[in-house]
Write a structure and sequence with these properties.
heterodimer; A: about 120 residues; mainly beta; 7-stranded mixed β-sheet; about 0% helix; B: mainly beta; 5-stranded mixed β-sheet; 4-stranded antiparallel β-sheet
Chain lengths: ~120, ~110
């Protein structure tokens, strides 16, 4: 079974559209994350949720809105897509409490978003 | 900004040990050293972490200098599948991971 899964794997859309990326983890983790990896391959955190509560919100345009219906899911909704949003988006999860080991993050396979 | 410095790339012969260095001269006493890797087109994968002592698991060994200003990740018998970008990250437990540029390790037959 896949530990952290994302759908879709590829997403091609036009500027101005609204799209969502879904993430699910079956590890029983409390904390989930969204990262963006741009064309220069730098990986940056966008958001983090712990037990459905937002705990990290980096400087991200408010067109990006994470939603966590339960602690196993963290979806990313993007409004009014722009060319600069083209990137690979990774979801991750961690146990989130206790020892240093509990903060190991497990990443999904990524969603490649292309805005034309 | 990442608090670590890594060489941009390294080559290693298949079957040999790969030693990946990382400098973290400004590391704080409560910051751990984490290593992740990213194989092409995949999500990053956790490898190992440590605070002061050397650590070993089924994937790798982590050697941290006594002053904690640098560390080395050792893949004892590199295979072609170990070709990836390796990220050295320092952080306080519970804080966000800040990824730098990493080291591109090329394992060659």
């Amino acid at each position: 079974d896949t530990a952290v899964s994302q759908t879709p794997k590829y997403l091609v859309t036009q500027m101005g559209n609204d799209k969502s990326i879904k993430c699910e983890q079956n590890l029983g983790h409390d904390t989930m994350y969204w990262y963006k990896q741009d064309s220069k391959k730098f990986l940056k955190i966008m958001f983090s949720y712990n037990n459905k509560e937002l705990i990290i919100n980096e400087t991200v345009p408010n067109r990006f809105s994470p939603k966590s219906p339960d602690k196993a899911h963290l979806n990313l909704h993007i409004n009014s897509l722009e060319l600069g949003d083209s990137a690979v988006y990774f979801c991750a999860s961690s146990l989130g409490t206790g020892s240093a080991s509990s903060y190991e993050q497990y990443f999904g396979p990524g969603t490649r978003l292309t805005v034309t | 900004d990442a608090k670590t410095t890594q060489p941009p790339s390294m080559d290693c012969a298949e079957g040999r040990a790969a030693n990946l260095p990382c400098n973290h001269s400004t590391i704080s006493g409560n910051e751990y050293v984490y290593w992740y890797r990213q194989i092409h087109s995949q999500g990053p994968q956790y490898i190992i972490h440590g605070l002061k002592n050397n650590e070993t698991n089924e994937m790798a060994s982590l050697i941290i200098t006594e002053d904690r200003k640098s560390s080395t990740l050792i893949l004892p018998h590199a295979t072609l599948r170990d070709t990836a970008v390796y990220y050295c990250i320092v952080r306080v437990v519970g804080n966000k991971l800040v990824f730098g540029a990493g080291t591109i390790l090329r394992v060659k037959s």
